[in-house]
Amino acid sequence: MSQESSCLKVRKNLGEEAIVLANRLGIFNRELQIQRDNEYVYIPLIRRPTKNESGLLEQRLPNYTILTRVFPERNKRVPLLALLRDELPRNLTPSLPHSVDFVGDIAIIEVLPELDMYKTLIGETILKVNPNVRTVLAKAGAIGGTYRTRDFTIIAGESRTETTHKEYECQFYLDVAKVYFSPRLSFEHHRVASLVKEGENVVDLFAGVGPFAVQIAKMRQDVEVFAIDVNPYAFEYLKKNIRINRVEGKVHPFLGDARQVVRKKLFGMADRVIMNLPENALEFVDVVCKTIGPDGGTAHFYSFVSTSHSLSMAESSFKRAVGECGRKVDEVVFSRLVRGTAPYEWQSVLDATII
Predict the structure, then answer these.
(1) Does the structure show a pLDDT above 90 at 141?
(2) Residue 20 belongs to domain spanning
(3) CA-wise closest residue to 210 among 178, 249, 177, 167
């Protein structure tokens, strides 16, 4: 079956970014198959973009076009509920996982306590419907500790937690049990990398395995990225990812506490600072102010907010903290809710210029 639909036409090199952006804007039609030819990608939409949405598309996608095209319907994936309907007691089906995170060939889910005796069955079912998945992990605790890691239980497939994850033409080796990594930040990694200008010095205070740093270096020819992480496992993967993505000489890895590394080696030399530590990023605002050069620069500030109206509160807190460090937020040029992290809680980002 096929149907006519509005669509977003972009050049193939912008295809992945356009798909992610259309999805973020809530206009991507998942019921229809994306089409491609030798030069362009055609992304089906559920409706034409609004004026504000068109403005964002224009910023991110040069020379995009909205047109009408006939698309074949997508083969629909059978949800876990339908596959396990006859295998579980009826009162437990509402507790089935509603989402799966895919990191490389590893699937990560949350299994509620009442489903514990069925977790192997759930894991095997995920393997069955996702042929590219080799291991299924169940979360066994919250993210915590200095290294922001969590415990997992292997419930199906191969007994391992190391994988290779692909994101926007970059490859990342990592161990999900030893380092922090979220595939839900894929668009954010690419968004920030796209904002970096040629000739900039960028400091990533909490670099992990390098999703921001490596993408920036892959996207820009003339750039210096200083990537810091306190986790020795993340540091080793960061060095490996720098090598395999061929960005040696542009990404400089540092092992240690961001505050100490900046004080000793990176004081006052940054045009742009990334501070993706939402749990306690406010505690490092003074580090950002010391890292940014005397002529000013841009900070990407991530934090947790409790309601959709709290972006203004995050902005006020950030401005106040910068002021207490003797500097000033000249402008908050962008802000948004990045992803839901818990009921009524979101990770947010502010892009701010500091003078």
Answers:
(1) no
(2) 2-72
(3) 167
